[in-house]
Amino acid sequence: MQRASCDTEHTDARTKDAGTRAMIEATALTKRYGAKTAVHDVSFAVRPGQVTGFLGPNGAGKSTTMRMIMGLDRPTSGRVTVNGLPYAQHRSPLHEVGALLEAKAVHTGRSARNHLRAIAATHGIPNRRVDEVIDLTGLHAVAGKRVGGFSLGMGQRLGLAAALLGDPATLILDEPVNGLDPEGVLWVRGFVRQLAAEGRTVLLSSHLMSEMALTADHIIVIGKGRVIADASVADIVASTQTFVRVRSPRAAELARRLGQADVTVTEVDPGLIEVRGLTADAIGDAALGLGVALHELTTVQGSLEDAYMNLTRDEVEYRTTVDPGAAAGAAGATGADAGLEAVAR
Ligand SMILES: Nc1ncnc2c1ncn2[C@@H]1O[C@H](COP(=O)(O)OP(=O)(O)OP(=O)(O)O)[C@@H](O)[C@H]1O
């Protein structure tokens, strides 16, 4: 993939900087709407050179926080800076931070190229840069087409192209893969990772946990306006409980014999149990001692999704009748994501 930058010197400086200086910094950030506190005393730092996922159930305060980062909403108290200054105090904000806040195509009769040229013109950005971002986002073949006729995927590429016009070091992307087909999701994932690899700071929100696990390096989770987790994806996943999946024609009998203090055995199906509190070795030895045949003995590490469900179980503002435990346990990433959405909405 072509570098998502037009300024090599600039980018090399950024890469050297990566991991050292926080580019988005929130300090005791609070936003109240009348009696409603949407964001409560939130502090976090988003660092360059990695993708930081911003997660939380619906109504948790993500959009409000993103709006305050972008200067679209004023904090009630506290502050948030981008590259050291509140957004509104930057002389050329488009060169500091690019944002994709709306997940829909712009409805306009203009061509993609003219749409981008219009934005560029109002920010003193040369047309040369418009052509560069068109190439970077793979829009070349449709650059002359009316934006109003764009698919959601093309609309997202156009939104990313607009966000990149000022070659900003910081990008804020709200649900960039929402509604995209698998090819579009794959493209956005690769693109976002490339932007971070260049040393840029990328803050990305998504409800798709399986996608976040593949895209983000670091995760900030908010619930009911407060930060409830701020850690690397690896650390968050490592904090989830592992369990051992055991398949046996005599699973029920094995379950009874394994049951003891600090061991939890869940019967998933006749013939399939999940054991927490014992290693696979211990279960295998116990089965051998009992003369019970095992058809499967697998240690399963919890997923980012499991960790997220545990973290946000008490933080969901609008709960449906779907049981979060059942949703988290749903088989396969897609099924579990669907369950998560049902809980979080
Ligand atoms: N302009 C407003 N006036 C009053 N309340 C608001 C306003 N904007 C947001 N809120 C409330 O603040 C809380 C946080 O909303 P916000 O949109 O930031 O959440 P979110 O995490 O982005 O949710 P979603 O995932 O649904 O986009 C919600 O309870 C919401 O109803």
TrEMBL record:
GO molecular function, one term: ATP binding
Pfam families: ABC_tran (PF00005)
Coiled-coil segments: none
Superkingdom assignment: Bacteria
SMART domains xrefs: AAA
Annotated CDD domains: ABC_BcrA_bacitracin_resist
Keyword Nucleotidyltransferase attributed: no
Alphabetized UniProt keyword annotations: ATP-binding, Nucleotide-binding, Transport
ABC transporter domain sequence ranges: 24-249
Similarity field: Belongs to the ABC transporter superfamily.
PANTHER family listed in its UniProt record: ABC TRANSPORTER, ATP-BINDING PROTEIN
Name this protein carries in UniProt: ABC transporter ATP-binding protein
Source organism of the structure: Herbiconiux moechotypicola
